[in-house]
Predict the 3D structure of the following.
Amino acid sequence: MRIIEIETADKVALYGCLYGEKFKNTCVIITNGTCGNIFENKFLRIVGEKLEKSRISFVYAHNRGAFHRIDTIAADKKPIGNTYDLFDKCLLDLQAYVDWAKAQGYKHIILGGHSYGTNKVVYYLSNHQDEKIDKYILISPTDMGRFKDHEKESVLQLMPLALEYKNANKLDDLLPYPFDNYNLYTTEAFLDFVNNMHSRNLPIYSQNGNWDQLKQINQIGLFVMGEKDGFAFNNADYHLQTINQNSKNKNNTIKVIKGCGHTFFGKEEELANEILSFVKSF
């Protein structure tokens, strides 16, 4: 594995982790979810190693919502990271990785995401229907309009402060305490995370989104989730089947990995095998 540096159209430096560099037939690109990164998401390291052994290239593509904060030099002089992440910027992030893969001469490109990254992949594909993406992968897909109970409480606590900061023109200021006791946000990033309608593109349970983006995607997909994933609310099969039923292409592969949760702890090898099988099934 080696680190590659990608520059977006708006001059933000992103870093991806490349496995199987010498293989030029197929490249699988998976982008991270909220704060996701190569160090904490062990299951994607296992995926990369598994694909590399099968002569398939893999990029864990850090988008600008990776980690909490990264002090990189961007054109607007601001740091990046989940603390500052604005959903719509994912179009620039994913395009940069797709452009890189095309420049490398890969015959096949498969694009995917984990968690919040799945919403970004759906949004990207719905906006770039002419790109030569062969397949797509949604790992632990999330309904961004349906918060868990403790997340709802955190939103209720932070929203009055965020609106106060917004009215005071403090969009770049950090809110005084983290969302869900974990994610620090600027005012602008928090309001975007909660309210951006573009990310509400997998409304499995919620009534405040729609399936329009998914219905524009022509490619076949792999939808995979841990049986105990908290974002599936005790029914991962229903969760994934609902996504499939609302897809334009109904021939997607549905896989529930038994005995694991959102990051597939203890079942990383099983996840890697499912992804490898899907990638090789051209």
Notes: The chain has a mean pLDDT of 95. The CA atoms of residues 63 and 134 lie 21 Å apart.
